[in-house]
Amino acid sequence: MKQTFKVFVDKQTRNILLTVLAVMVITVFVSFMICRHALTAEAQIRYTGLKNVTSEKIAKTIGAMEMSAENVFDEVGKHMDSPDAVITALKSKTHLNPEVRGYFAAFEPEYFPQEGTWFEPYIHHSDTSEFEYTQVGSARHDYTKSDWYIRAKKSTGSFWSDPYYYYDGTSMSGHYATFVKPIFDSTGRLACVCGADITFEWLAKELQKIDNDSKSDSLLNKDHLYDIHDFYSVIIDKGGYCIIHPEGKSVSLTKEQARILAQRKSGTMDLELNGVPSMLYYSPIDHVDWTVAVVVAKQDIQKPLLLLALVFLLIAAIGLIVVWQACRR
Questions:
Q1: How wide is the angle at C-alpha 201 spanned by C-alphas 229 and 284, nearest 5°?
Q2: Which residues pair with 104 in a beta bridge?
Q3: Rounded distance, CA 293 to CA 55, Å?
Q4: Closest CA to 200 of 137, 153, 245, 151
Q5: Alpha helical stretches, state H, the chain
Q6: For residue 93, what pLDDT band results from cuts at 50, 70 and 90?
Q7: 128-137: long-range contacts (C-beta < 8 A, 24 or more apart)?
Q8: Is 228's pLDDT higher than 60?
Q9: Spatial distance between the Cα atoms of 230 and 304, rounded to a whole number of angstroms
Q10: Share above pLDDT 70 across residues of the chain, in percent, rounded to a whole number
Q11: Residue 122, SS3?
Q12: pLDDT-based confidence at 149, cuts 50/70/90?
């Protein structure tokens, strides 16, 4: 009689535990799927917001540089009576934006006969914070064959040159992008092409500063399940090349991915970086033909989800133990 009762209780306990387990599995699965959808949407909103903030701040930085450059260019256009007047005009407005590496005016050959074929006064930083004057036009540096000069001769407005590498064996060597504008004299003839240079080094520092501000902003970069999310930003040119990035964290795109970014739209993209599956949240930057992208590893996006799964499993395990203990009594 006692043995029969024991078997009946064991079987009953097993059935109760199996029933509770089934209910818990269904409940945990449904809850997990709902939370997964919510966390995925939250991650999309967070990183899209970070990308938008980065894009707006970079555009604002570049826009401020353009405004100061336009003032310099206008000053040159008003003082083309002589080479000295041009040089003085270039120097007069450099204080408006000391972050610009240099301002130049590349004149049409023989525009000032006394200056010969190449007259390109350049007011620039070298190894100090002060601006200094250099005449850089020469047969060795024939600016009339440069892409930005040829394009400017066919244009009537300002534009950004494609990124390029300049080398002259001095501290001036480096990667540049130039804001360019053709300047016409009172007769309507092209007199010169003015430009304002920024270096990739300066732009990388600005991008890193924006990233650091975003990472320390609790409203932008925290949630309740996972404290701090890691990410970094890059800038990609219209050809799909990563021109600005943290050291050792460049982004390589396929031709198809580069074509998508060239459409100047916002979106997301899956890619693998150094063997790590990642997400790219990208958006075009105003003023230039570049794209800013926020890069985050997928495992970092999934960390809150994994933590939530562990919480659900722990709750389920505790629930089963409680039911089992109750059945034993």
A1: 60
A2: 122, 195
A3: 8
A4: 245
A5: 2-78, 83-92, 147-153, 200-215, 218-221, 255-261, 298-328
A6: confident
A7: 129/98, 131/91, 131/94, 131/102, 133/87, 133/91, 136/104, 137/106, 137/107
A8: no
A9: 13
A10: 86
A11: strand
A12: very high
Check pLDDT > 90 for residue 83.
Answer: yes
Q: How many CB atoms lie within 10 A of CB 108?
A: 17
Q: Would you say 244 and 294 are in contact if contact means Cβ atoms under 8 Å apart?
A: no
Query: pLDDT (tens digit, 9 = 90+) per residue, 95-124?
Result: 777 788 889 999 999 999 999 999 999 998
Instruction: Read off the tokens for 285.
Output: 């930057």
Q: What mean pLDDT is predicted for residues 63-74?
A: 91
Are 185 and 198 contacting, i.e. CB atoms less than 8 angstroms apart? no
Question: What is residue 144's DSSP assignment?
Answer: G
pTM, full prediction: 0.76
Q: What is the C-alpha end-to-end distance of the chain, expressed in Å? A: 19
